[in-house]
Write a structure and sequence with these properties.
globular; 314 residues; 13 helices; Rossmann fold; alpha/beta; 6 strands; Histone, subunit A; single chain; 2 domains; six-stranded parallel sheet
Length: 314
């Protein structure tokens, strides 16, 4: 039988970390982060990182491994995460992948197509065109690769930039390159658990969490990172909360405007995550938040039914 690992997915704020910790304690597991922003050092408050005390001695991997001005691709993540899977299983423990960056999880499980390397000069030009004519990237992609344009949200500038970059560098549609196949993860059995809390309850929690980030020092954290010498153009500053906190620190946005904008954008992000993961029929959905006992017990039952090692059928 192939070695197994568990992946916990779902929208931001649904309690993925809480469920991952519970399962790790029950099943002698180790946790592999699958949140793209938690890879970066110093970005703590806005990423809801689990603190050392909250980890309860459970090993956590791929957290705080990059400096803010480093770049990480989905391919980089897949390589590192696959190495961690192998190491954890070699220790006789259960890998638990937890996080909401769906593209990173897909890169881990399904692999990526062999696309061209980043072209920073081209990206600067694409970004400049988007700033001058908002919507340029999506219009370009609709013309040259309508299939990819239909899959990528018009507001997802990172994915749009990459898709346009691939089209221009290869003179092929990115969707056609994807169709040529990728190096899938072989030799493992995975179980993907999705947390599906009531939407309105989640939105209330996200609103509260967004406000709490600012009251607990998010702007001060941003200032500290800048004082370390990292540029405001560093990739993590583009993320939810940090983008607004940076604008607030510069005097471009009031505190209440920053909080309200973060709340709105976070709700929209959660909705996009739901849409992404709901398209994957490998996910077994569990209603509720990950910290709830009934959800945790349902997760254990599901893993037992999937014959994850260390569990008897319930």
């Amino acid at each position: 039988m192939n070695p197994s690992f568990v992946a916990i997915v779902g929208p931001t704020g649904s309690g993925k970390s809480a469920l991952a910790l519970f399962l790790a304690e029950q099943l002698r597991g180790e946790i592999i982060n699958c949140d793209s922003l938690q890879l970066y050092r110093h970005f703590d408050i806005g990423t809801a990182k689990v603190t050392a005390a909250e980890q309860h001695g459970i090993p956590h991997h791929l957290i705080d491994i990059l400096d803010p001005n480093d770049l990480a691709t989905a391919g980089d993540y897949a390589r590192l995460a696959r190495e961690k899977l192998h190491e954890i299983i070699a220790r006789g423990r259960l890998p638990i992948v937890a996080g909401g960056t769906g593209f990173y999880l897909r890169a881990l499980t399904d692999g990526l197509f062999a696309g061209p390397r980043r072209d920073d000069e081209l990206r600067v030009r694409l970004t400049a065109n988007e700033q001058k004519r908002p919507g340029f990237l999506h219009r370009f992609l609709r013309r040259y690769d309508p299939h990819s344009a239909a899959r990528i949200h018009p507001n997802d500038k990172n994915k749009l930039t990459r898709a346009c970059e691939v089209c221009l560098l290869t003179r092929q549609r990115m969707s056609a390159l994807h169709a040529q196949g990728a190096e899938r993860l072989e030799g493992y059995t995975s179980v993907q658990l999705g947390l599906d809390p009531p939407r309105e309850e989640l939105y209330v929690r996200l609103n509260e969490r967004s406000r709490a980030m600012f009251t607990h020092g998010l702007i001060e954290e941003v200032r500290r990172i800048l004082e370390m010498g990292y540029p405001p153009e560093a990739k993590p500053f583009e993320s939810l909360g940090y983008k607004q906190a940076l604008q607030c620190a510069r005097g471009e946005m009031s505190l209440e405007e920053a909080i309200a904008n973060t709340q709105m954008q976070t709700r929209r992000y959660a909705k996009r995550q739901w849409t992404w993961f709901k398209r994957d029929n490998r996910v077994t959905w569990i209603p509720g938040f990950g910290h709830l006992l009934q959800v945790q017990q349902k997760a254990l039952q599901t893993l037992a039914e999937k014959e994850i090692p260390g569990l008897k059928k319930m």
